[in-house]
């Protein structure tokens, strides 16, 4: 029992650290919803902070250990995260590219932590809404409408001709010459 109390006393008196950093190149409209996640490598316990309007973040009361610091944003992408090693000697920050193992870290980086991202590309393109006029303007639809009009209009046109004109068209075989003669006759 005394051992447990002694251990609790050691934990409560253990040194605590603060982890500071900033997210660079953020436009004011991109700041909303940007979070920084500090994850303990051993336990998986996570702490989450929203960045300030200036892009800064701070984690307080951090115990010695190894941590991953990740920035999550709905608008901005980041190619790397930081692996932090906090000890009595100080803080060691290494960039860790996504997809790499925790042991595959780059050289140590300057402190405070600095994240620079780039805007995510829009992968979903909004389709324009339905427009009847846009449908009619399509060449194939337009040609189909003309054909339908001719199919419906020609019988009406032929039925409106008098018997004498119809007989002339039948005798000429329906040639262009006959159509011209009929047009001249009706224009007089």
TrEMBL record:
Which keywords, in A-to-Z order, does the entry hold? Carbohydrate metabolism, Membrane, Polysaccharide degradation, Signal, Transmembrane, Transmembrane helix
Q: Where in the cell is it found?
A: Membrane
Keyword flag Transmembrane:
yes
State the Gene Ontology BP annotations.
Answer: polysaccharide catabolic process
Q: Which GO terms describe its molecular function?
A: carbohydrate binding
How this chain sits in the membrane, per its record, is: Single-pass membrane protein
Q: Output the Pfam families linked to this UniProt entry.
A: EMC7_beta-sandw
| Residue ranges constituting the ER membrane protein complex subunit 7 beta-sandwich domain according to the UniProt record | 29-143
Taken from the UniProt entry, a GO cellular component term is: EMC complex
Q: Does the keyword Membrane apply?
A: yes
Family as reported in the entry's similarity comment? Belongs to the EMC7 family.
Q: What name does UniProt use for this protein?
A: ER membrane protein complex subunit 7
Identify the species of origin. Wickerhamiella sorbophila
């Amino acid at each position: 029992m005394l051992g447990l109390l002694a251990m609790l006393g050691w934990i409560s008196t253990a040194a605590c650290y603060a982890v500071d950093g900033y997210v660079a190149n953020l436009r004011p409209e991109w700041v909303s919803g940007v979070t920084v996640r500090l994850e303990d490598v051993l336990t998986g316990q996570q702490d989450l902070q929203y960045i300030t309007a200036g892009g800064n973040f701070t984690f307080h009361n951090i115990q010695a250990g190894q941590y991953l610091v990740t920035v999550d944003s709905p608008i901005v992408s980041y190619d790397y995260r930081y692996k932090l090693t906090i000890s009595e000697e100080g803080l060691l920050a290494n960039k860790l590219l996504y997809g790499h193992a925790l042991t595959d870290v780059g050289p140590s980086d300057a402190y405070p932590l600095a994240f620079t991202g780039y805007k995510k590309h829009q992968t979903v393109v909004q389709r324009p809404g339905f427009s009847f006029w846009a449908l009619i303007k399509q060449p194939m639809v337009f040609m189909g409408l003309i054909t339908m009009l001719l199919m419906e209009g020609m019988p009406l046109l032929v039925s409106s001709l008098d018997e004498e004109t119809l007989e002339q068209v039948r005798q000429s075989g329906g040639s262009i010459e006959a159509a011209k003669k009929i047009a001249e006759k009706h224009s007089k």
